[in-house]
Write the structure tokens for this entry.
Amino acid sequence: MWRNTPTRFGLLTRALHWTMALLIFALLALGTTLANIQPGLANLWLYGLHKTLGFIALSLCLIRLIWHFYSPPPPPIGPARALTNRLARATHTSIYLLLLAIPLSGWVASAASGLDVVIFGHITLPAIAPVSAAWEDTGFALHGLLTKALMALLFAHIAGASLRGLKHDGTLRRMIHGSTSTD
Amino acid sequence: MRALILMLALASPATTATATPTSYALQPALSSVGFETDFGPDLITGRMPVTRADLTLDFANVSASHVAVTLNVQGAEASFPFAAQAMKGPKVLDSVDYPEIRFESTAVHKSGDGATVEGRVTIRGVTHNMVMQAAFWRQKGHEAGDLSHLTIRLTGAVNRSDFGATGWADMVGDQVRLDILARIERTN
């Protein structure tokens, strides 16, 4: 039930997928909000929340990659060399890379600002970058740029999954229920 | 009113004890250096300890007075932890490389009930002119004419960008308002 098989997504992979989906959309909404508000004492806690959720997303992404190393997910439905499947694999790989790079770039930029990176209100993460205006500016620029790239890829991912869902090829059902209707 | 009474008393020929410059020492436990700056719709407030204060006051000839104060940047506290860390960090006061702020008067003028103190302030190794307003009071429990224990309130403002302290300029105001309450006792 927990493990993936050559045709099924196990419960852990599905739970990670949907939990991360909710988390990423919450982070995108929160990050966009933070980029457009005037900071003040009343909303200072939102910055801490963004860092906490970002750290959770990074952790879940690493857990998912490690889990897939031990329990590989099934390949996309249909011929492996089909253009849609090659595009799907490229999109998935890119999303994974961005889910690692975006929180890391935010962590680097925050550490480079000279301020502690605090999550859950009291846990201080190690400073993974020197205190430097150049590191900070580059880190935040990358954080914003990569986030926009993630938004575009998520749009492509959701559009592709929705099209497959409309075609009833089993892809969407497999990520919700574990197996296709014909399994 | 007490300040006015003090100034009138000090201007009186009867106050012969103050006819010459008098040295005063800071009472650190009873003194504080407060500051505030804008943070969006709110204020960041805080305090900074005084490392050293040399004060020579001449109430008969105010222009002969001299004030030199050194503040301990690394000991600064702010109204919330991030503000203190940001303020002491390299983007603002850079307390590692510049652990002190120093103010030294260059001219003191009588002004109303108090005085105007012109001087040079050094922050982050950059020195600029600064003007502070001073008001004086006798400390509570001391008789009129007893100038052995005084309270001085110095107020003024600096623009942190003038000193290269430009960090978080999009979030935190440029002007930093100072409110120094120094309680001093005569040493000679």
Q: What stands out?
A: Chain A has one domain: 11-177. The helical segments of chain A are 11-36, 44-70, 83-112, 133-166, 171-177.
